[in-house]
Design goal:
Layout: H1 4-15, E1 34-37, E2 42-48, H2 57-73, E3 77-81, H3 91-96, E4 103-107, H4 111-116, H5 124-128, H6 138-141, E5 145-146, E6 149-150, E7 153-159, E8 161-165, H7 166-171, H8 183-193, H9 209-220, H10 238-253, H11 265-273, E9 279-282, H12 286-292, E10 301-305, E11 313-323, H13 329-344, H14 346-358, H15 373-386, H16 395-399, E12 403-406, H17 412-428, H18 434-453
Parallel strand pairs: 2-3, 11-12
Antiparallel strand pairs: 1-2, 4-11, 5-6, 7-11, 8-9, 8-10
Helix pairs in contact: 9-17, 10-17, 14-15, 17-18
Pfam families: SBP_bac_1
InterPro entries: Bact_solute-bd_prot1, SBP, TAT_signal
Signal peptide: 1-30
Length: 454
């Protein structure tokens, strides 16, 4: 099974399809972008990888509308979409064979390796020429930056936080507008929220999601998972031990966690939706699932920032558009212009929000702030205008000033897999030794790093 981080990314691929790059009709292009000279004008065609699947005709319809609007406002520029989600196992070979689209929607974890392997086009001049470039959060831009050059357009992002049941908070004498902001408070809240039928907290520990959430907790503690060059595993540190000790104490000393374990994110969301648990770790995009799958009353739920223990940070993930280094500059410019138009043009965003709201889809779920200043204020205003969720319930999350830290890139999923069993052990065995378990995981994982950087 794919890790939750991968599933989140796939959800972003699907949910952003209506704003993603589009298609002219349904024809397929054999190669990548092309430039065709006419008698008086030059027509430039660029390909993008985010055509929605045939199973979602509604999304395809919206997708095509955005394309038509773009082509009308950008004469001579044509966009062809393909349903070709990014695949890290084949991307390098396809770049070498010039078979990738001119613009590819990828993940925040990918640019470091892609830049190292020279598999991305330099778009520094293009993106710096965009009127809102200076509004980008610097930590977001750094995801696709190297040596003063920029190789991608960050598109959307999420940060993990705490979902909680506001009714349970009130019943336990806790202020539902003030979720816990420190590890100590979080542990105390979980104890206060537990009852004979409700657990204070439930955590993931399988399908690579134990390692994913462990990384998030590590960031809240100010620790690192790998060295900056990706050559050394660092998660066996005292900070790593402190995370496992906290979870173990909550499970066996406080008995504030579920007795049953080995959960995925889907499992913990179900526990939250069915009033079996008061708090879980989740990304804000799950509000849509909470409403559509469980018919939950969103007024009953809040979202707070990750409780901190010295790190002032949380794990972030999301999507980023990168460009084929073998495409011509004219084609890359056309693809870049479309990515900016379809994702950040305020009129396009407003039309999308209006359509989503009319269709009963969740609008207004908090997201990571990609931008600062006036542009972000304009985005916030549109989000508020069409919101159909209780925005006041997420104020603690949106007001938090946390550093956004991306997932480690080197052998990420294998690292998560190595940590799954560690998290499982401390949640199922009262005699588990956190320090010993982490050192064993480091010994298991380090050879993979050695092989990947040799």
């Amino acid at each position: 099974m794919k890790s939750a981080s991968f599933l989140n990314r796939r959800r972003f691929l699907q949910s952003s399809a209506a704003l993603g790059a589009g298609i002219i009709g349904l024809e397929a292009l054999a190669g990548c972008g092309s430039v065709t000279a006419g008698n008086s004008t030059t027509s430039v065609t660029a390909t993008v990888n985010t055509l929605p699947p045939a199973s979602n005709p509604g999304a395809i319809h919206v997708f095509n509308q955005v394309i038509q609007q773009f082509e009308k406002s950008h004469p001579g520029k044509k966009i062809v979409g393909k349903n070709d989600p990014y695949d890290p196992t084949t991307y390098f070979a396809r770049v070498a064979a010039n078979q990738v689209e001119d613009a590819t929607q990828s993940y925040f974890t990918e640019p470091p390796l892609l830049m190292q392997k020279h598999a991305l086009a330099d778009i520094t001049s293009l993106i710096k020429g965009w009127q809102y470039f200076q509004s980008y959060n610097p930590s977001i831009v750094s995801i696709a930056s190297n040596g003063g050059k920029i190789y991608g357009v960050p598109q959307n992002a999420y940060a993990l936080g705490i979902y909680y049941n506001r009714k349970m908070f009130k019943a336990a004498g806790l202020d539902p507008d003030k979720p816990p902001t420190t590890w100590e408070a979080f542990r105390g809240y979980a104890k206060q929220l537990k009852s004979s039928s409700v657990a204070g907290f439930a955590e993931t520990s399988t399908s690579n999601q134990g390692g994913w959430h462990f990384t998030n907790w590590m960031y809240t503690a100010g620790g690192d998972m790998q060295s900056a060059d990706g050559k050394k595993a660092l998660f066996g540190s005292d900070k790593g031990v402190s995370i496992l000790q906290m979870l173990k104490d909550m499970r066996f000393t406080d008995q504030s966690m579920t007795k049953q374990q080995l959960f995925t994110q889907a499992d913990t969301l179900q526990l939250l939706a069915t009033n079996k648990v008061a708090m879980v770790v989740m990304a804000p995009d799950q509000l849509n699932t909470l409403k559509s799958q469980y018919q939950a009353n969103l007024d009953d739920y809040g979202i707070g920032p990750m409780p901190q223990n010295g790190g002032n940070a949380a794990l972030t993930g999301g999507n980023i558009f990168v460009f084929n280094p073998k495409s011509s500059s004219d084609v890359i410019k056309a693809a870049f212009d479309y990515v900016i138009y379809s994702n950040f043009d305020l009129s396009v965003i407003e039309d999308s929000y209006a359509a989503q709201s009319a269709a009963g889809q969740v609008v207004g779920a908090p997201t990571n702030v990609l931008f600062t200043g006036d542009f972000q204020q304009k985005l916030n205003a549109l989000n508020t205008k069409y919101a159909n969720v209780p925005l006041q319930n997420y104020k603690a999350f949106t007001d938090a000033q946390l550093t956004l830290r991306a997932e480690p890139r080197n052998q990420t999923q294998k690292m998560y897999a190595a940590l799954d069993s560690v998290v499982q052990s401390v949640l199922t065995n009262a005699n588990a030794d956190p320090g010993k378990l982490l050192q064993q995981a480091v010994q298991q994982f380090q050879p993979l790093l050695d092989q990947s950087v040799s």
